[in-house]
Amino acid sequence: MGQGTIDRDPVRIGRIVGVHGLDGGLKVYPASDHVDTWALRLRRVWLQGEARTVRGGRTAGGQPVILLSGVTDRTTAERLVGADVFVAGEELPGLPPNEYYWHDLIGLRVFDVEGERVGIATAVVRGAGDVLEVEGPRGRALVPLALAWVDVNPAGGRVTLRRVPEWVSDAD
Predict the structure, then answer these.
(1) What is the Cα Rg of the chain in Å?
(2) For the chain: N or C, fewer Cβ within 10 A?
(3) How confident is the prediction along the chain (172 residues), in pLDDT tens digits per residue?
(4) DSSP per residue over 82-133, as a string?
(5) Beta carbons within 8 Å of 132's beta carbon, 6+ residues apart
């Protein structure tokens, strides 16, 4: 088993949702749409507070499958189903311009195009089209993560809504 603690910038990259094969393969439901940038390149992850060396990776039906130290059979793998998978933030590969990791969006301030604060980005919801969850004084809104709707600037600490959901402009 691996050693060490994740002491800098832990990033949740997914959750173990099942097992694959007899060799301890763990199916990961990713918390990012950049699976191809990390799934097959991981060297070390943390599950349940414990560091594990990644001994291999593959995809099965488009879903990442990782093989971890100390997990060499299906029975051991089944015990990890439901566990969140973390990596140290500095181990994530860089992304091209205008792309970002979902964890970079959580906590960003959200504004409308006039510069009025709308709320805070609290989550990214995966689906047919990814959606940004925004909590504001009028409640929660789900905003499509598409260029027609948002301008995302993680380095600037903000998201600007190009199209404002109805709850933002409605008077109480």
Answers:
(1) 18
(2) C
(3) 334 444 556 888 889 999 999 999 999 988 766 665 566 678 889 998 889 999 998 888 888 899 999 999 999 999 999 999 998 877 777 777 777 777 788 899 999 888 889 899 998 887 777 888 999 988 888 888 887 888 888 888 899 988 766 655 444 4
(4) T-EEEEEGGGSPP--TT---GGGTTT-EEEETTS-EEEEEEEEE-SSS-EEE
(5) 105, 110, 121, 123, 124, 125, 142, 143, 144, 145, 150, 159
pTM of the model: 0.64
The CATH fold of domain 102-169: SH3 type barrels. (2.30.30)
